Amino acid sequence: MIQLDAAFYPVKNTPMNGLMMHYPLTLDRILARAQKNFPEQEIVSRLADGSLHRYTYGEFYTRTLKLMQALRRMGVRPGDRVATFAWNSYRHMELYFAVPALGAVLHTLNIRLFPEQLVYIVNHAEDQFIFCDKSLMKPLADLAAQFKTVKQFIVIDDRSPEVGIKLKGMTDYEALIQNESAVENFLQFDENTAASMCYTSGTTGEPKGVLYSHRSIFLHAMGISMSDTLAVSGRDTILPVVPMFHVMSWGIPFAACLTGAKMVYPGSQLIGKPIAELIEHEKVTLAAGVPTIWNVLLQHLKKDKADISSLRAMVVGGSAAPPALIAAYEKEHGVQILHAWGMTETSPLGSVAQLKPYMQNWGADALLKQRAKQGKVVPLVEARIVDDAGKELAWDGKASGELQVRGPWIASSYYNMESQDAGAAFTADGWFGTGDVARIDEHGFIEITDRKKDLIKTRGEWLSSVEMENTAMAFQGVAEAAVVGRPDDVRGEAAVLFLTPLPDKKDTFDMKALHAYLSEKFAHWQVPKLVDMHIIDAIPKTSVGKFDKKVLRARL
Ligand code: ADP
Fold first, then answer.
1. From ligand 1's centre to the CA of 309, what distance in Å?
2. DSSP characters over 451-488
3. Residue 259 near residue 33 (C-beta atoms within 8 A)
4. In sequence order, what DSSP letters do the residues of 317-344 get, joined into one string?
5. Beta bridge partner(s), residue 350
6. What domains does the chain contain, in order, with CATH numbers?
7. pLDDT score of 282
8. Does the CB atom of residue 337 touch ligand 1 within 6 A?
9. Is any ligand 1 atom within 6 A of the Cβ of residue 532?
10. How far is the CA of 203 from the centre of ligand 1 (A)?
11. Residues with Cβ < 8 Å from 325, sequence gap 6 or more?
């Protein structure tokens, strides 16, 4: 087994009688709750042919035990890495629990990574088994010969058409588990054992592996179930549009199994209509995804009505939630957007824009501004901002510096990476430097103004690309906008804006009017020149749906 670092604070044990039980926070304890406490609750999954698969947590539990037996028979040993290459579905959730419960490590591969990155990650993690959706076999098969450690591929039949591909040791998931018996044979091990891993999607340099422990996942599941954060509960029906390979679907499957929330997995169909249908049909109360997903849904709902009023909140994270998006959902659908911030290294939840009681009386504009910030740091996580010399800065809404965090679900290092390659991410005094530049206001609300590498320095002053993007996206007719810097003889760097108009404004979009609007909001040297404002068909996106500024910069 891979043992993680011991507790962050080196505390000496003081022998005492009458202390609490030693109860390791391991994922099999979360799994076992399902059978005893909410076996009737449903898990619904959209399959590749559009049909819905439904079963209960009771059946989920039985099948997960069978899967554990099958994994044992395949030779999976504690510490082995077992990878998945799959969409969000009930079988993926079975793997989420079966693999860690054996003491092995679940490695969720990002299906949208560039081939060379995928090869790098599989080899770096030394994956031995890969569970792959049938619909995703083609891209994986093309690379299989380059995987150095993979012994066997297991295919998940997601009801997509046959592809006629053969892979090493290929076995069907259902065939694998069907003759196994469901025995409760849980190992006992330390809560600081590795349970799963994700690699950062590589928007900055080589992908880096982050190893989650049973304890960190367990505590994070409790963390996102607190009413001041995402308030996941047994009364929820949750639709995680965020992929199960993107920071463990933000930890939602674990919190759902802890609390007994009904789950609705969307499979591969993530654009407007199928998502709208799922929300209406299953009466989803909580949905989670990156802004792009909710933007597409919003546009879809303008022409094709659906009832999404069952939603108590939509969690938006991964990139800044534009205020225009927050306002539109509230006004047009009465749905609240809950803006959250996090990273692969932070499991991911770091902060949530839950308002404080005294803010309820604020005016609409002030409230919107507050809710568009990344919010208060969540319980069990600590945050600070520091200047270039590492000096802590004030929470006054003005001082701006690198955001640093620490806590029980924050990474202490990268998997198998020399510290010099990890850069300045981990400080000597035990903080993780996020690379995000932020202010923290007097209410304790974090506001991310940029990633360090995306900041634009124009006329010697920093310009927040996020601020300009949000302003542009609030302008009539703009669907999406991204801002990057280009070298400029006079200004040092100059802002360049790329935008995609709404479909009905494609041919008539008035760039001059947008330029005039930006000139009212920013200093004239910050505003991109008209020749630096471009309409493009679509803003390029990273593998997890964020604006891909690397690609935009390369275009310049
Ligand atoms: P990658 O680093 O490859 O994009 P992550 O998903 O770990 O993968 O990205 C984390 C980063 O995403 C954060 O450092 C931050 O820059 C950005 N991010 C996440 N949530 C938000 C948010 N709510 N607002 C602004 N930026 C965000």
1. 28
2. EGGG-EEETTEEE-HHHHHHHHHTSTTEEEEEEEEEEE
3. no
4. -SS---HHHHHHHHHHH---EEEEEE-G
5. none
6. 1-12+19-43+54-213 (3.40.50.12780), 455-555 (3.30.300.30)
7. 98
8. no
9. no
10. 10
11. 291, 294, 295, 298, 316, 337, 473
DSSP-derived 3-state class of residue 154: strand
pLDDT score at 242? 97
Burial class (CB in 10 A: 0-12, 13-18, 19+), 108: buried
Angstrom distance (rounded) from CA 67 to CA 61? 10
pLDDT tens figures, 303-327: 999 999 999 999 999 999 999 999 9
448 to 357, 401, 554: CA distances (angstroms): 23, 10, 24
- Whether the pLDDT of residue 211 is over 70: the answer is yes
pTM of the model: 0.91
**Mutation test residue for ligand 1: of 206, 294, 319, the one with most atoms within 8 Å of CB:** 319
End-to-end CA distance of the chain: 48
Per-position b or e across 342-367, b if 16+ CB within 10 A of its CB: bbbbbbbbbbbbbeeeeeeeeeeeeb
Instruction: Kindly list the catalytic residues.
Output: 200, 345, 457, 462
Residue type, 180: E
d(CA 238, CA 247): 17
133 vs 82: CA distance, rounded Å: 14
Beta strand 171-172 with 194-199 is: unpaired
CA angle 502, 503, 504 (to 5 degrees): 95
> Which residue type sits at 523?
A
pLDDT tens sequence across 225-247: 999 999 999 999 999 999 999 99
Encoded tokens for 392: 């802590």
Q: Which of 146, 111, 141, 148 is nearest to 126 (CA)?
A: 148
Using CA atoms, how far apart are residues 434 and 396, in angstroms rounded to an integer? 20
Predicted local distance difference test score (pLDDT) of residue 14: 67
- Write the residue with the smallest CA distance to atom 5 of ligand 1: 343
User: What pLDDT does residue 461 have?
Assistant: 80
What phi and psi, each to the nearest 5 degrees, are found at residue 465?
-65, -35
Q: Which of 346, 296, 293, 345 is nearest to 319 (CA)?
A: 293
Cα separation, 120 vs 207, in Å, equals 8
pLDDT attached to residue 2: 66
User: What's the rounded Cα separation, in Å, for the pair 456 and 213?
Assistant: 37
**Residue at token pair 């994986």:** 140
Per-residue confidence (pLDDT) for residue 313, from 0 to 100:
98
